[in-house]
Amino acid sequence: MDITYLEDEETVAETVTEALRCVGYNPFHERCAQALLDRVSCGVDPGACYLLDELNNVETNPDNVTGSQVALELMAQDSSARIVIGTGCSIDELPPEVQEAINHGKITYLRKPFRMAELAGMYD
Length: 124
Fold this sequence. Notes:
By secondary structure, the protein is of the alpha/beta class. The chain has a single domain, classed as Rossmann fold, CATH 3.40.50. It has helices at 10-22, 33-40, 67-77, 96-103, 116-121; strands at 2-6, 26-30, 49-52, 82-87, 107-111. Strands 2-1-3-4-5 form a 5-stranded parallel sheet, sandwiched between helices. Helix 1 links the parallel strand 1 (2-6) and strand 2 (26-30). The longest helix has 13 residues, at 10-22. The termini are close together.
């Protein structure tokens, strides 16, 4: 299964990308939220899978576009998109719209650090 993984911290991205491969995914790593939004602005593959970091590090996220903003945009483009917010932030630190989507099962939430079993089952 193809998965787009948004992560701005390179060492984390390398580790998680390898873990995603180990559990059977074909990951495409994107470091910049705006680049991901630009790429999908031409159209989202129906039911596409995304694992999004919150991107709250100003030094590595100069566009200041968060994973939550990307998630909301992806949901607006394709209600069948399979979105996971994977972050070190607690749910309470995420925007209210994202918290609501998590509570209604439209977005899945995983807390870092990830466990292999969580990664393997995040789209079940």
